[in-house]
Write a structure and sequence with these properties.
15 helices; alpha+beta; 501 residues; elongated
Length: 501
Amino acid sequence: MDIDELAQKHEADHPGYLLVDWYEAAFPSYEVYLRVQVQVEQPLPTIDRFTLQALQAGVKTTDEIGGILGLEHQIVCDALERLQRMGFIAVARPKGDGKQREILNITPKGRNILQTLALLHPEEESLPICLDALTGEYYPHRRLYAAGNVRDADWYQIPPYLTAPEYDEVEIVSLRRVWREVQRTLPKMEHKRDLLDVLKVERAFVGYRPMRVLQFIRRADGALLLHVYDGVERSPRHEAALLKMEEEGIRALRAEPKRGPEEALDPAIEIIGAGAYKAAQLKAMEVPKLRGSINKLEQQIQETDALQRSSSREEDTALVTQRRVEVQEEIGHLKERIAELESAAPTVQILSMIEHRPKLLQALRDAQERVIVVSPWLTPTAVNRELRDLIAQRIAKGVKVWIGYGFGEPDRREERVLHDLEQIQRDKGGHNLRLCRLEDTHAKVVICDDKYMITTSFNWLSFAGQPERGNRVEYGTLTMDPSAVQAMLDHVMPMFTASND
């Protein structure tokens, strides 16, 4: 089935959504070549086995072993040297005039090897493996397409989300799982090998494998929905990874995300009303400009005062006095306009991206009873030591902190964050920290007691909001209206209740 047939088949899968693009895409992976240590099972050589059996039967000297086995003295000596080096035998050298011959004894390790008749021998070798640059999954090595091949095939090239792995980032447990999968496809004689350790990353380079993408957008508000097909099977992990990249401001999809009316993006519009929302938008746009104008006018007053002090002419004094009066009148008009804008939306504030992170921290400091944070994803960058320490301080003082998260399948970063938060749960007041994996939520909400709430497109717990990180545009709505806050609580609380059912 080609891409057009695939699109036609699934076009009507999601009522309310429009299929806006479908294309062959090149998904990045790394071809990684590792230096590894493997354990190889080899049969115990026949001479070594008979030598150990003779020692187990009570034979004590080299000459006796040679006589029993009918072997030349040097051959027996070579076998004994190997067995001693591996710890299977011990050599006792009696004190005296040196005429007494050495006494040979089998060790417990030697007795054990006679039970299996197999040697476990460590070896080094190069292991090629692939690492998906979006999901972080390891899979058996395959030859990937180079960027030139991607251009020739006219596939849409998706950028990597993860960097090439360093030595200390290689996950040995996941690697062993793939190793066993590969071993099952090899001849039976190859099965007696086990992966012990990764010694170093020899080299790694990015390549691409083709998949197919169907991109849907919800007509009402522009929400994204994706199908990603790896062959004939859908890949939910790649779908979640692409959505996460888009949410974090990384352009991953071919079609430019289209959105509906701006107020439809924010669930607060349904609670506070379109009029209050638009008044808050106008306040957010106009008030900073008006305050900037006031600052400039106040600077002019300072300059005119300086001129008056430096001049004794009556004409200058009269001009300065007149100008000060005019500027102060203008400042008064601007302040009146600010008051009008603020009174039109007294309980609603539009937040810029830079304001989000401080507001999250402030909500934790302000709360007397409970803070609710709902955010689809968790990353160590956002849930850093600063945030974790503040959570620990607040729950120790009896403040409840509820965190709802979850979109797609858990990844390594989410697991790391949960591990850190679960550590906090074991400390003082830990029962006040509640972690709930919700059902694929896109909501991004913070609620502080019943005092105020913030609804936003900002991912509270997966992006720290540093302004130097690029041109992300995230806006949120802070609402202090008690009825609006209660309405949002009525909407959010059942999500936490359902997650425990």
